[in-house]
Amino acid sequence: MVFGQLLLxxxxxxxxxxxxxxxxxxxxxxxPVVAVxxxxxxxxxxxxxxxxxxxxxxxxxxxxxxxxxxxSGELERRHALDVENDRLRRLxxxxxxxxxxxxxxxxxxxRLTDQSRVVVIDRGSSAGVRPDMAVVAWGGAVGRxxxxxxxxxxxxxxxDPGSGAAGVIxxxxxxxxxxxxxxxxxxxxYVPKYDAVALGDRVVSSGVDGVFPxxxxxxxxxxxxxxxxxxxxxHVEPEIDERALEDVLVLLEPRGTxxxxxxxxxxxx
Amino acid sequence: xxxxWAALGIGLALxxxxxxxxxxxxxxxxxxxxxxxxxxxxxxxxxxxxxVVGCVSGLLQDYWMEPRLFGLNGLIKSILGWAxxxxxxxxxxxxxxxxxxxxxxxxxVAIVLDAGVRHLFGEAIAxxxxxxxVVRTILGGLLTALVLAIVxxxxxxxxxxxxxxxxx
Lengths: 269, 168
What we know:
The structure holds two protein chains of two kinds. Chain A is of the alpha+beta class. Chain A has helices at about 1-10, 15-55, 60-90; strands at about 100-110, 115-120, 135, 140-150, 155, 165-170, 175-180, 185-190, 200-205, 215-230, 230-240, 245-250.
C-alpha cells in the first residue's frame, strides 16, 4: 500500500494514467460529501447574513451614506487622474493598459497549514479557468491557479512556501521577488541593498512574471533585514486577509504584463 | 456493514475538514479531522483496517487540498495507521489517557512527516514554529479523546459489532 502511494506521488510529475485515474476516482466518490458541505455552508451563511442584516442600525446607514459621499468625490478625483494618466501614457509611447478580463468565483474551502496554503474555488475548466491564471480579491493578489477540474480549481496562495510573484515597492520602485514563507507571511528577495525601503511601504505586483498584471497589492513591508551580500531580505505582511476570503476574481488573461516587442509599433499620441 | 461505518466516519471527517476550511480556515493549521477515523480504527479495530482507512481518507484529502503531490496525505496516513495500529495491538491505548496520547502523537508525527516527504520530493518547505507544534499536539489529543469517547458511546448503544475488534 505504501509502495503504491509512493508510485502515485512519483506519477504526479508525469501525470500518468494511473495517477489521473486514481485522482478521478477519488474525486467521484467524494463529490457527494462536498455537495452536502456546500449546501450546509449556504444555509449557515444565509442565516448569518440574515441575522447581520436584521441588526444593521441607523448609525450604520448614516455612516455608509457619508462614505458614499466621500467615495463619490474620490471617484471624480480619480477620473481626473485617469485622464491625466492617459495623456501621460500616450506622451511616453506606452501601450494602453486595459483592465484584465476576469470571472468571479466563490471560495469552497481553504487549507492554511504551514507547508500548504491552498484555496478551492467553484469555477473550473468549464468556465474557462486554466492553470497559471492569476487570482485576485478586493485589496490585492491572492494566488495562482495550479490545477483545474471541470467545476472547480485549486489556487496556491501567495503565502504558500512554493509561491512566488514579481513585486515592486510602490514608493521607490525597488524590484524583487515576493515568495511565500508559510504560516501567512512572505519575504521579498533580491532587493538591492542600496535601495531605500521603509517599514509600511506598499509592495505591488510588477507584472514581470507574466501572471499578475502590474499594480495588484501584494503586501506591506513589516521588517527590513540586514543586507546579506548584494541584497537585503524584507518581510512582507500580505495585503489581503486569507482567512476572510469569500469571493475572488480569476483573471482570464494577464493583460498589461507583456513587454513591448521590438517590432511592435508604439501607440499613437 | 463495517465498510459502511468506515465510509460514514471518513465522510463525516471530510465534511468537518471542508467545513473548517470554509468557516475557520486558521484552525486547519492545528487540526486534521481526517486523522480521527484513522485513530478510531487503529485503537478500536485492527492495524490493517487503520491503514486502509488512513489511505482512503488521505487520498480524499489529496484530491481536494493537495495541488502538487497527489498521494502525499495517503502515504502519510497509511504509515500512521500502520504505526498506531501496531502500538494499539501492543498497548492498551483505549482509555482517556491513551486516546489523548494517540491523537496527540499522530497529529505531531503527521506534520513532521508532511514536511519530510515534501522535502524528499523537492518541494519548498517552511519552518514550523514550536508553538504551532505544541498547540496542534494538544488540540489533536483532545479532539481524538473526545471523538473516541463519542464513538464508544455510539458503539455501546449499537451493541457488539461483527468483525475483528480490540479489547476495550
